[in-house]
Structure formats: C-alpha cells, structure tokens
Write a structure and sequence with these properties.
The protein is an alpha/beta fold and about 300 residues long. It contains 12 helices and 8 strands. It has one domain: Aldolase class I (TIM Barrel). Helix 3 links the parallel strand 3 and strand 4. Helix 2 packs parallel to helix 3. It is globular.
Length: about 300
C-alpha cells in the first residue's frame, strides 16, 4: 500500500505469551484493532515494540503477521535498528521482501558516531531499498540528534527519505524543518505529550504510544487538533496528558503495556532486561490509569 505518512500511526507493542514468546494471534488482533479505531497504519519493531529483544527471525515473523493481517487495509512500517550497518541493511531488504510499505530508520544502537559515520549508516539503509522511509530522530533516547540541516542533506541524496519522526521534544524543530525542507516532506511527532503543540506548528502525523491502549481517544485528539477545534482538543488533551506523559519516561514500555492490560486489550508482559512494574511504582501507575478511565470524557 502507498505510504502517506499522516494521521495516527501506532508504534505497536509486541505481545508475549506466558513463556515470553511472540504471541502472533494477539499481535494480529491488536493490529486490526488499531486500524478499526481509525489509525492509518502501524510501525512495528520500534523501541516500544521491544525490537532490541527480538531475534532477526522473530522480527521477520512479526512483520509477516502485521502485513498479512493488514493486507489491503493499511500500511506496515518496519523499524530498522541494529548494532551493525550490515544487519540494518539486511533487515531493510527483508522488510521490503515481506511486503512492508515503508521503513523507519534509526541510528546505530550503542555506538555513537560522528556525522560522517552516522550519515553513512543511514545512507546505506536508504540506498538498500526502494521503499519510502522515515528518519527517526530521538536524541533523548539515542543521543544522536539529526538537526534540520543534516536532514536536508540526507533528503538531497536519498529521494526515498520522505518523512521524519521528530522526537526531540522541542516543538521548535517542527517549524525549523518546515522552513528548510520542501513542502512535500512530512513531519510526524513521536512524543505523545507534545502532539497538540506540534500539530499547531505544522506536523501532519503522530507516531503514537498510548494509542496502543487508547486508540479512539488518540484518533479523536489528532482529528480535533488538526481541524483547528482548539476548545475540544484542549479539553481532551487535558484529560489525556497524565497518560501521554508515561510515553516519555524510561519505563514507557512497561507503562504502556500495563495500560493495555488495564483496559483489557493486552498483557503487561515484557522481555528482560525489562521487568514488569511492582510495588509503589505499579500502584501509582494503576491509579493514574484508573482515574483516566473513570473520567474519560468520551464515555
């Protein structure tokens, strides 16, 4: 399917069974629920999808399940991250062969290179595929910061780089990119608690986290904000923010999976080295979720 890079696109979680194996029936059900709720595609194998804990075989199987489930309905974007450039290129090629509609390209894991090295890594991935690609900029998590001038440099050399997932948490970046890039370049937000502000500045999409537990509310918030209905958007945003802020802390995977479990749409299971929440941390998270459910303006 054609990749439009707009709307609410979940960075989907990866469900695990009791033995911490990928639960493919649950994954298929989850993908379908996201699209049924108004999302415009899914991103698999991202940080929220615990991609770093999956083997290459598991990654390919996850992509196949997503593509098969959403065939003809919505595009699947594969997160491309690896320790080595060779592994990242291999995954990119396999994702294209599997039927993915686009790629989300990350900097290398662990090694923090200079711009020449990082550009070579990203460029190798972009050159290895004909698929449209989205660059993932998350300096908070990965230390690498793709500044607007570097993004422009990459786009000039790789026409299939069509979008960016901007997760610097600096809403000023949206306008900085808009002023520097061609109008066709798409800016999507990857920080849940900056979505309304970023859409106001001209972003056109949301690679979302809490959507995994609250898809209807996420789509409603996006549509209200993009349409300019500020009063209703801010009312919903005010309710949603305590949940959205859990997307921007170190244990965001555990918190979002817990939210899925609390709404009856998933399991809190995570793979080590992550552990499920416990004690006061678990109690506080459940309290936040329970309050949100009790005060949901849409119910």
């Amino acid at each position: 399917m054609k990749m439009l890079w707009q709307g609410v696109i979940p960075a989907i979680t990866t469900p695990f069974d009791e033995n911490l194996r990928v639960d493919h029936p649950a994954l298929a059900k989850h993908c379908a629920w996201m699209i049924d709720s108004g999302c415009t595609g899914v991103v698999a194998l991202g940080s929220l999808g615990e991609g770093a804990t999956l083997t290459m075989t598991e990654k390919v199987q996850v992509l196949k399940t997503c593509v098969t489930t959403l065939s003809g309905r919505a595009p699947v974007v594969a997160g491309i991250s690896a320790l080595s450039t060779a592994e990242a290129v291999s995954l990119a090629k396999t994702a294209e062969e599997t039927g993915c509609s686009g790629l989300m390209v990350l900097p290398p894991y662990v090694y923090l290179g200079d711009w020449r090295e990082t550009k070579a890594h990203v460029g190798a991935i972009l050159s290895a595929t004909k698929l449209p690609c989205m660059l993932y900029n998350n300096p908070i998590a990965y230390t690498v910061d793709f500044v607007p001038e570097q993004v422009k440099e990459l786009v000039a050399e790789h026409p299939n780089l069509e979008a960016i997932k901007e997760s610097s948490a600096d809403v000023r970046r949206v306008m900085a990119l808009r002023l520097l890039m061609n109008p066709e370049f798409r800016i999507l937000v990857g920080v849940d608690d900056a979505i309304v502000e970023s859409l106001e500045m001209g972003a056109v999409g949301w690679i979302a986290g809490l959507v995994n537990a609250f898809p209807k509310e996420s789509v409603d918030l996006f549509n209200l904000a993009i349409s300019g209905d500020k009063k209703k958007a801010l009312e919903l945003y005010r309710w949603f923010l305590p949940l959205l802020r859990t997307d921007t802390v170190p244990k965001f995977v555990q918190l979002i999976k817990l939210a899925q479990e609390e709404v009856g749409k998933g399991s809190a299971r995570v793979r080590p080295p992550r552990l499920t929440l416990a004690g006061a941390e678990l109690a506080a998270a459940r309290q936040t979720i329970a309050k949100a459910l009790a005060t949901n303006p849409g119910h």
